């Protein structure tokens, strides 16, 4: 098996159900990935040890998914020059608004490309990771163009169905 290009880090295994579409999209694009549970707050040493291996192992994009006072993406970004995409998970009483702010509001110099909250944000993280990797991968670029075309085709199909149902 080839080396993972995308490293997905979850703050908890309880975040796993939220990222199912992310995994599906990465598989659809044939992007090798790995998934690791590590918490910025509960296992800071493990998170640090993991972050410093990423570049040497050939990982090219990191996706960090965490809820509540989510510092996972920021901490990973502080230990690597790889692009880090953050996904705020809607697992807290504030339904992810806390995670959105704590993931996105990074100090200057340590960016986290923050997605929207929850499942849609997780899906977009996979697409953005694919778009980053596609800069050096013509086959992946082709798959991305086909993916975008399918999105557009689906809108036209729904438009046709809506019009048909209104005329019925
Ligand atoms: C965050 O706290 C995790 O990313 C998760 O979204 C949330 C709850 O974690 P558990 O208490 O379910 O492990 O750190």
Provide an overview of this structure:
There is one protein chain. Strand 1, helix 1 and strand 2 (33-37) form a beta-alpha-beta unit. The protein has 2 domains: 6-136, Rossmann fold (3-Layer(aba) Sandwich), CATH 3.40.50; 138-168. The mean pLDDT is 98. The longest helix has 30 residues, at 138-167. With 168 residues, the chain is α/β, with parallel strands linked by helices. Helix 1 packs parallel to helix 5 (118-134) and helix 5 (118-134) crosses helix 6 (138-167). The chain has 6 helices and 5 strands; from the N terminus they run E-H-E-H-E-H-E-H-E-H-H. A 5-stranded parallel beta sheet has the order 2-1-3-4-5, with helices on both faces. The chain binds 5-O-phosphono-beta-D-ribofuranose. 5-O-phosphono-beta-D-ribofuranose is lined by residues 11-12, 14-15, 39, 66-68, 89, 91.
Indicate the topology.
Elements: E1 6-10, H1 20-28, E2 33-37, H2 44-51, E3 61-67, H3 72-78, E4 84-89, H4 97-104, E5 113-114, H5 118-134, H6 138-167
Parallel strand pairs: 1-2, 1-3, 3-4, 4-5
Helix pairs in contact: 1-5, 5-6
5-O-phosphono-beta-D-ribofuranose (RP5) binds next to strand 3.
